[in-house]
Amino acid sequence: MDHDITAVSEKIQAHAAPIRALTEEIGKVLIGQAYMVDRLLVGLLADGHILLEGVPGLAKTLAVKSLAEAVQVDFHRLQFTPDLLPADLIGTLIYNPRDGSFETKKGPIFANFILADEINRAPAKVQSALLEAMQERQVTLGDTTHMLPTPFLVLATQNPIEQQGTYPLPEAQVDRFMLKLKVGYPSREEERRILQLHSISDIPKIETKLSPQAIQDARKVVEMVYVDEKIENYVLDIVFATRDPEKFKMPKLKDLILYGSSPRATLSLVRAARAWAFLQGRAFVIPEDIRAIGPDILRHRIIPSFEAEAEERSSDDLVEEILHGIEVP
After folding, report:
1. Terminal CA-to-CA distance of the chain, rounded, Å?
2. Per-residue model confidence (pLDDT) at position 165
């Protein structure tokens, strides 16, 4: 096992440096928001879609666009609006009157990176078309199924403060996102640096640092990161505590959680923890990796009850209590 860990460590050293270089490249135009950038890299390495939630103007779109520019991939930004149709997203069949045939016109979803801007502005049909493509990695037009390119990553943003004219994502569909990030305001010093950067006309250009093949190679190394049986049991304890907190000596949470996390949470937590360990240069997962990435995996997979809302307890509060309540191996 030691020999395997050493071999994987060497591979991580070789593949992690180019991935970490993306942080520096994105940092040319994005001041602060280290939390958001780190999690974008976790999603990239763990092949998981990401939902970013935050008020307008926090550089969510800029972060995603910068990541796409730093990686040599096809990138499409889709501004979701109430009049958007599924065909605007996935494409359609166009009738050719000359020979009576139908031609396939592929939609903008056929790209490596998709930025679904303000996803909660589009109606349910459009959201479900996107979420189906996310899950199946394919689109069916007429009788033909078309595979989406690899890598395929959806990064969606939503605005939590405006509810009028929006269609909130159903809880079951939010589960398709591996990570849900809550993006906060920058510090005073960071905002000063943003002011200084954008007060000049010559804003730095982002250079391409990574090829799609390099991402695929890095993902293979991430899969080699060792997860001990104790860590697996720790993850299972956390997820099962969201469903039946009484068994884990947290009876107060029983009435505060309406629905716990699905098995997707278990799979996502291990995959994301592997990617997090990889970014730290480690060939094995430790409990701190689970605790670091846990809130981003679980916050959208726990549905608080009316009692929790009455007590003003958010899903973040409940996740934190569970992570503190489960014994660390």
Report:
1. 20
2. 63
